Amino acid sequence: MGDAVLFELLHLEIVAQIYKQPEAGDTQEHGKSLSTLEGMGFRAGQGLIERFTKETPSFKDELDIMKFICKEFWTNLFWKQIDNLRTNHQGTYVLQDNRFRLLTPISSGKQYLEEAPKFLAFTCGLVRGALSNLGINSTVTAEISVMPACKFHIVMQKP
After folding, report:
1. Residue 138 phi/psi, 5° resolution?
2. Rounded Cα gap, residues 130 and 140, in angstroms
């Protein structure tokens, strides 16, 4: 449990540090900050998936990889599985977490709903980096309607 708290605090501090520099209302700097967080997550996701799949037999298809992301990868990072995985069987997946651990500390009121996307950029990068290292190019975006629940939309890029 101590690891969970340390990870949450480290994540909050990284987001605060990256967002400390831009001026309020500067959308170009805001975009750079989101990109920086996503890039950090991408690199971390690449390294983590290597460790998590070291003893795992090879995956047979895209859906098998997504099931691994929802169960093993998510559990290793956030101490719970994804609550719901949906797909259209055409390369689009939606992962739903009804109580996302990194949003829980700021989910006490609606005033933080506008600030929430910056707390999801790192996780979008984690998932994209993990998929990239497994040979899948993708686009990962996040959506929040009611905190702390969120959905991660993954669109596979066909070669």
Report:
1. -150, 165
2. 11
pLDDT per residue over 110-145, tens digit each? 667 777 888 899 999 999 999 999 999 999 999 998
The size of the chain, in residues, is 159
**3-class state of residue 138 by DSSP:** strand
Distance CA 14, CA 71 (A): 26
Each residue's pLDDT tens digit, 70-90: 999 999 999 999 999 999 999
Which residue in the block uniquely carries the two structure tokens 């959308």?
27
DSSP string, 73-127: IHHHHHSS--SEEEE-SSSEEEEEETT-TTTGGGTTSGGGTTTGGGGTHHHHHHH
Closest residue by Cα to residue 101 from 125, 126, 74: 74
Q: Residues 32, 22: contact at Cβ < 8 Å?
A: yes
Contacts of residue 86, defined as CB under 8 A and 6 or more positions apart, other chains included, come to 93, 94, 96
- Contact criterion met (CB below 8 Å) for 121 and 37: yes
